[in-house]
Amino acid sequence: MWDLALTYKMPNQRDISVRVDGIDPSVAVENPSNALELSSRLEESSAEGHAVIPIGGGTRLEVGGAPSKYDVALKIGKLNSIVSHNPADLTCTVEAGITLEKLRSVLSEHGQFLAIDSPFPDQATIGGVIASNAPGFLKWQLAHPRDSVIGMEVALPNGTLIKSGGQVVKNVSGYDMARLHIGAFGNLGVITKVSFKLTPKPVREATLDIEFDEISLAYDFAQEVYKSYVMPLSLICSHDFEKSSTGCKSLVRIGGRERALKRQIDLIREIGRRNHSTSIEIIEQPESDRLWIDVLNQSVKGVDSGEYIKINTRSSCTPSEVEHAVRIIWSSLENTGCLLSINSEPGFGAIFCNIRFPGTQLRDESIGVIQKLRESLHEIESWLIVEDLPTEWKSGLDVWDRDQISSIKLMESLKATYDPDFVLSPGRFVTFQ
Amino acid sequence: MDKLIEDLKKVVGQDYVLSEQADLMVYEYDGSVDKAFPVLVVLPSDTKEVSEVVKLAREHDLPIVARGAGTGLSGGAVAERGGIVIAMSRLNRILEVDETNRIAVVEPGVVNLDLSLHTGPMGLYYAPDPSSQRACTIGGNIAENSGGPHCLAYGVTTNHVVGMEVVLADGSITWFGGKGRDYPGNDLRGITIGSEGTLAIATKIVVRLLRIPETTKTMLVVFDDVETASSAVTGIIGAGIVPAAIEMMDHFCIEAAEAAVNAGYPEGAGAVLLVELDGLNESVEEESEEIESICREFSPLEIREATDPEEREKLWAGRKGVLGALGRLAPNYYLVDGTIPRTKLVDVLRQINELSERSGYKIANLLHAGDGNLHPSILFDERKPGDTEKILAIGAEILKICVEAGGVLSGEHGIGLEKQEQMPFMFTEEDMAAMTLLKLAFNTNDSLNPGKIFPTGAACGDISQARAIARVGPGAYI
C-alpha cells in the first residue's frame, strides 16, 4: 500500500527537480524518510513493473543517457541523518541523502574532513556524489574519491536491503560490494547508507595562485611539484582560451601544521620561479575555500552566454598526457568558432572542458566536432564523456564514449544479474540498459 | 587425464605441468594448515597461456586455484576441491615503471618487496606492505586485498591498484581499469580485489607508486598496561595525527620478545607502542613533538626515538621477532585476525582477557592498534586431548566479540577456508546471497577457487578443525 503522505501522483503537481532530460516521472514521486520505507517503495515499484530513477540533490541529473523509461522518481533527500560518527575512530556512517555541505560542517566541528568534494556541495547528496562519481579536485594523497568508502548499505531493485564492508578501515570480509555501486548511477541498486574513512583536517590551509605565460611551463611546474616532497590537496591548471591561447594559471591547495605549511609554500614558490611564473599569490582561508567551490562549479557547469550552446565534458588519461590532451582539445576546436575553457588535474589525469558552440551552428555539425575531438583523444588512450549537453543532442551522440570502455559485456551481465527487469535508471548508465 | 596433461604441456611447455605426487605436495598447503592436493599444477609464463589453461580446465570441468607465494593465512591458495593450481611463479616480471606517472605494470608473481626495491633508486615505493612482503606476491595481495603495518596512513591494496588485465573464467582476456585513474562504468577492478581469486585471475597489474618520504621517524613508547597504551593511541588520533603506523604488543608478547631478541624493555612493561611517522621534515618534527607530549600525559615508562634506518630497525626488532618468540610460551598458538573500531580497543581487550581467564588459555595480543586490527594469539598445546576444540571455540568467540563491537571478521588475512563458517556473524542470508550473485554475473560456474569465503552449509568436523588451527611457526607472517 502506498502512503499518500509520502507520495503524490503525477501529473497534477509537477516537480521539476525530478525532471530528467525533459521527462517527468509518469507515475509518482516517492520521498521516503528512511531506508526501510525506501526499500518498500522500490519493491512495490518493481512489482508494478515501473522504471525508477533514484534522485539525490539533482545536481547531476543531466549526466548520462536519456532514460528509456521513467515512471517513479525515488528521492533520497529525507534519508539525511548521520548514523554514527565517533571522531576518535576517524570513520562515520551517514544516510545517503545528507548533503556534502552538512556532513562537512559536522565533521569540521571535530577537526575532520571527508576527502571528497563535489560541485554544489550544499545541494549534492552523499548518495548522489558517490553514485554519479561526481568530479572533485580534492585528492588526498592523490587517491580516488572511492578510496574513502569503507562500507555501504544498498536497496536492491527487489527492495532487499544488503550491507557490505563495515566501519573499520581494514577489512577483507566477503566481497567489497560497495564497489559495484560507486559510479554506477543507481543502475544496480539504491545507496541508502555509506561508511567513510575520514581524515584529520589540516591545521592550516592555503592556496597558491600561480600564473604562467606558456602552457608547457604550467605543466612542467605541476610535474615538478609532484616530484618534490609537497603533497598538494588539490592542483589544477586552468585555461581560458577566450582570454589567452597560451597563458595558463595553476592553483595549488596545500595544508599542514605551521612549519610544514610554510615549507611547502617555500618549495612551491621556488618551483614556480624556476618555471618562470609571472605571478604568485597566496590565498588564505576562508577565501580559498570559496575559491575551490567556485572553480569546481564552473568546471562542471561552465559559463552561460546567450548566443552560445554550452556543453561540458570530462576526460581522463595518464598524468603525463594531460598537457598533450589539452593541446589536442584546443587544436581540434581552435577554428570551429567555439569558445573553450579547461580545468585539468595534471597529478590525477583528469580534464574538464567547457565548450560553447555558436548558437547558429547546426546540431549535427557540433556533434561532428565532438566526435572528431574524441577520435583524437582516443589516440592517446583518453576518452571523453559529455556530461552536460542539450537533451536533444543525446539522440545523436553516445554521451559515455562507450567504445572506450573495456569489459562492457561484464557490466551488462551485472545489470542482467542484479536488475533483470531493468527497474533502475534504464537507459542512463554506460550499458544503456 | 593424459590427454589434458599433453594439451597443457603444449600450452606451457613440457617442464611446466606437474602431476607427480611428490611435486604436487609442494602446492598442497599455504600459510595456514589447510591442505588439499591439486590434480595438476601448471606454471604458465604469460597471459595467453593462462587463458589457454583456463579454457582447457573449463573443458574438463576442473576448478582452478591461482596461487602466488602461498603465504596466505586463511587457506585461500589451497585447492580445496582439487583441480588445477595455476602457479604464478613464472609471471614474475616488472614490465614497466613509469616515473613520471608514478605507476608500475607488474605481473602477478612479482614479490611485493621486490617492486619497492626496484623502484627505490627512483625515489618511489609501493605502499602496501604486508609483513610477508619479502615472500608474498602482488597477485596474492590483490586476492586478499592485503594490508600491512603502514596501511593506516596510506590505505590497503585496493587503494593502490589502478588497473588490471584479467583472465575470466571462460578464458577471455580483458582489462578492469587501466593506467589512468578514472574510468566510467562499474568499478570491476575494485570488486575483484579482495575476492580471493573467485571472480577473475589477474595477469597484469598497474599499481600506484608513492614518493619515498623525506624523513621517517620511529618512536617506541612503553606503558604499564594496554589500557593506558590504548588511551594514548586514541589521544594521538584525536589530536588529528595519523601516523604511518601504530603497533602495539601486550605483556605476553613483551615477555616472549624480551626472551627471544633481548629487546631491552623496562621492568614492568605491560604494553609497547611503536609509532612511525613519515613525510616532510617539518611535519614529522611537529607531529612527533605532539605525540611525545600526548604520551607523557599517560606516564610512559620509557620513550625511545630514532630516524636513522639502523636505529629504527632496532626499535622494530621486538615487534618483528614476537611471533617466532611466542613459541617460548607454548608449543602452539592460534592467530586470530579481526578488526574493530579503535575506540573499542580497551573494551574488546578486556573481554578477550576475561575469555582468557575463564578458559584458562593465555592469549597474547599483538595489534595494528592504529587501525583497530587485532591479532590475539591463543597459546595451547595441540598434543593435549581436547585443546584444539577448545581454542577453536575461543577463536570464534573472539571474532564474535569483534563483530559485536562494530568490527569485522578479517582485517587482512581474508575469509578463505578458515572463517567461512563465521560469515553469518556479520552478514545476513540476503547479504551473502547478493555477494554470491557476483559469481553468476562473472559467469564463473564456480570454477575459480571454489569452496571459499561462503559457509559450506554444514559443519565439517575434523576438516573444519584442521582449517582453523593456524599452527604457524617462527616463519609465519602477519
Outline the structure in words.
The complex is a heterodimer of chains A (433) and B (478). Helices cover 27% and strands 25% of the residues of chain A. Chain A folds into three domains: 82-200, Uridine Diphospho-n-acetylenolpyruvylglucosamine Reductase, domain 3, CATH 3.30.465.10; 206-295, ACT domain (Alpha-Beta Plaits), CATH 3.30.70.260; 302-396, ACT domain (Alpha-Beta Plaits, 2-Layer Sandwich). Chain A is built from ten helices and 19 strands. Chain A is an alpha+beta fold. Chain A is globular and about 65 Å long. Helices cover 35% and strands 20% of the residues of chain B. In chain B, strands 12, 13, 14, 15, 16, 17, 18 and 19 form an eight-stranded antiparallel beta sheet that branches. In chain B, strands 5-6-10-8-9 form a five-stranded antiparallel beta sheet. Chains A and B meet through strand 9, strand 11, helix 5, helix 6 and helix 10 of A and helix 6, strand 9, helix 7, strand 11 and helix 8 of B.
